[in-house]
Amino acid sequence: MYRFYAGSLDLNQSTVEITDKDEIRHISTVLRMKKGDSVLIFNDRRQEGKGTILSVRPEKISLRMEDIHEIDDTGTADVLLACAIPKKTKFEWIIEKCTELGVKAIIPLLTARTEVKLKGERAAKKHQRYQTVAKNAAKQSGRTSLPEIYPLTGFSDAVSAAKEKGYTILIPHLHDRRNPLKDVVESLKTKKAAIFIGPEGDFTPAEVERALAAKAIPVSLGKNVLKVETAAITCAAFTIFSFNS
C-alpha cells in the first residue's frame, strides 16, 4: 500500500484533508488513484493510519481514517549526521540512504575544505530539495518520521548544536591517534551520537581541535581512505545497527 506524509496534520479524526501540492500530484496524477482507493498516512506527530479516499480535487484530497496508532520509538538509536557536502548530487544520495537507515537529523556541513559553496537563493533551493529527498525516502522505506534537515551550517556552529542537544560527537579523521569506530560505539553509555564526516582532504587540524575541545571522540574507519559518501553511510549504518542490536 502506498504511503504519504501528512506533515503536522492530526490523524485522529474521522476524515482528514491532504493539501500538500506534491502529495496531491503524486496521488492524483502520478498514481491516478481515485475514490475508494486506500493509502497509508503518517505525520510528524508519530501517528500512522489507513486512509480511504473520499474525493480527489486539485486543491485537496479527502480521506476517511481508520486504524490510527501511535508510533513509539523510545529507546531506539538517535544519530545525527553532520556531513561535508560532496560534489554533484552525492549529498542527496547520502540523505536518501541515511533516511532509510533511520538517522534522526542531518546537517549539511560547511568546512574549510568544502568545495561546494551554497549561498542565498541557491542554498534555500537546495535545502528545500534535501527535505523533499528525505520525505520521499521516508515514504518508500516505511519510516514513521522524517529526519530534521538543517540548513547549511558552519563547522563550529554544528559542533555547538550537537553538544547543546546532548550528542556524543564522533569525528573520523586521518591524523594523530584515533580509536576504532567499533570500540568507541560499543563503549558509549547512551544511544545518542553525532557523526561528523569531513570533505575530500579531511578536516583541518584546527577543526579537529575545535571538536576535541567539545569532547568529541576521534575515531578510525580502518586503513583505507573512504570517499565522503562511503564514510557517511558506513558510519551511520554501523552506529545505528549497533545501538539497536
In round numbers, the mean pLDDT is 93
Structural category: alpha/beta
In total, how many domains does the architecture comprise? 2
Largest beta-sheet characterization: 8 strands, parallel
The outline comes out as: elongated
CATH class of the largest domain: Alpha Beta
CATH superfamily of the largest domain: SPOUT methyltransferase, trefoil knot domain
CATH arch. level architecture of the largest domain = 3-Layer(aba) Sandwich
Q: Share of helix among residues?
A: 25-40%
Which spans of ≥5 residues are poorly predicted at pLDDT below 50?
Answer: none
CATH topology title of the largest domain: Alpha/beta knot
Instruction: List the helices and strands in order.
Output: EEHEEEEHEHEEHEEHEHEH
Tell me how many strands there are: 13
How many helices? The count is 7
What is the radius of gyration? 20 Å
Q: In words, what does this structure look like?
A:
The protein is an alpha/beta fold. It folds into two domains: 3-70, Beta Barrel (Ribosomal Protein L25, Chain P), CATH 2.40.240; 78-244, SPOUT methyltransferase, trefoil knot domain (Alpha/beta knot, 3-Layer(aba) Sandwich), CATH 3.40.1280.10. It is 36% helix and 27% strand. The protein has seven helices and 13 strands. The protein has helices at 21-30, 90-101, 120-141, 155-164, 181-187, 205-213, 228-244, and strands at residues 3-5, 15-18, 38-42, 47-56, 61-70, 78-84, 105-110, 148-149, 153-154, 168-172, 179-180, 192-197, 217-220. The strands form two sheets. Strands 6, 7, 8, 9, 10, 11, 12 and 13 form an eight-stranded parallel β-sheet that branches. Strands 1-3-4-5-2 form a five-stranded mixed β-sheet. Helix 2 (90-101) packs parallel to helix 3 and helix 5 runs parallel beside helix 7 (228-244). The protein is elongated, with a radius of gyration of 20 Å. The two termini are 28 Å apart.
